Amino acid sequence: MSSVPMVGDFVRESLDLHLFMARIMKEHAIFMQAGFLPKDVNYVQQAEQFKCQFDEILKEAIMLSDCTASEDVLKSGELVTSTTLLAEKKTQEMTGIHIESSLTIEELRLKADLGTIPQDIKSHVQWLNQKAIELATAFAEFKAMILDQVTKCCLVTNLFPSQFTHVYREALFYLKVLKRLQNNQFVDARVDLLEQEVFWDEIMGEHAEFVAHFLDPSEKELCRKARDFARRFEKLEHKMKGEGLPASSFGQLIQENLSATLAVAEFKASGTELILACQLKSLLSPLLTDHTLREANYYLRILQTWKPGYLGRG
Ligand SMILES: [Fe+2]
Ligand SMILES: [Fe+2]
CA quadruple 163, 169, 171, 173: dihedral positive or negative? Predict the structure, then answer.
């Protein structure tokens, strides 16, 4: 059963979510911006605006998160990794798109919750959540509109149509968790674990597919590994969706998901390092691989919250 969250839980869960998701959204805007062709300058400008607006959400969340962030979130590598800053600098250099690295430096300096969350910031966090809901709704609509144009062959970009579906679904995920928080629908921002697993298994599988398609065909070994990961997550997703999953096999599936996600996170981390060292032939930017690594780290943290006997139903 859901219950009404304490002020501290609401504040911490909301801010933790923005620290992860506002950054993810602003990077989607960067990838889209980099993917449009010169004639679509209007879309480039709209993507630039979304990037700046999510930077504002992130900036506000960082400011409010001073000593409120959860320790496990800060340690998880879902907010920033050891390569995020370098990946941003390199991607800015390669694309000419400005990336606000000062926010990354500030996020790296965040300190964990000291158990003293000021009660008076609740209304500020509610306002920030509302602002993020409006912005993420507009951004989801923008992504859907671009996908529609691409699907109708009215627009060509350097991203695959399925990548627009992918980033659209991630915006909907952000919106869903935010709306649940705003409506006091659960104690902590972890939505149903089973539902999350199906969602993130699909996301992990798609990352592997995208990487396989963006690698140069000469990178045969890495292409093979990426396809293996895609198949592994597809199988896990089907198992999770299986009708009448007995509670006894849930723990086993969590372990399978954990080991697959740990392995794919390692694959993404080494890919980012290879790109940064200019040792990989591909169409991938280091920020894109680092981005997918942070999403894997987020999923890992969620998986690690599972305890035997707990089915994750809020
Ligand atoms: Fe993403
Ligand atoms: Fe993703």
Answer: negative
Ligand located closest to 205 CA:
2
With CA atoms as reference, report the closest residue to 194 among 234, 152, 256, 254.
Answer: 254
Domain ranges of the chain: 1-157, 190-314
Question: Which ligand is in closest contact with the Cα of 211?
Answer: 2
User: What is the model's pTM?
Assistant: 0.93
Length of the chain: 314
In angstroms, what is the span from residue 314 Cα to ligand 1's centroid? 25
Interacting residues of 120 by C-beta distance below 8 A, sequence separation 6+: none
pLDDT digits (tens, 9 = 90+) for 143-189: 999 999 999 999 999 999 999 999 999 999 999 999 999 998 754 44
Write out the H or E segment, with its range, that includes residue 160.
none
Q: Distance from the CA of 171 to the center of ligand 2, in angstroms? A: 10
Give the CATH number of domain 190-314: 1.20.1260.120
Q: Which ligand is nearest to the CA of 20?
A: 1
- Count Cα neighbours of 132 within 13 Å in the Cβ-side half-sphere: 37
- Nearest ligand to the CA of 162 is 2
Give the CA distances from residue 148 to residues 175, 202, 206, in Å, rounded to whole numbers and listed in that order: 21, 22, 20
Tell me which residue has tokens 């694959």: 267
Confidence band of 314 (pLDDT split at 50, 70, 90) = very low
Ligand 1 midpoint to CA 292 (Å): 6
Q: What single-letter amino acid sits at 101?
A: S
Q: How far is the CA of 288 from the centre of ligand 2 (A)?
A: 9
User: Which ligand has its closest atom nearest to the C-alpha of 208?
Assistant: 2
As given in the structure block, the two tokens for residue 272 are: 């980012």
Which of 271, 275, 273 shows the shortest CA–CA distance to 263? Answer: 271
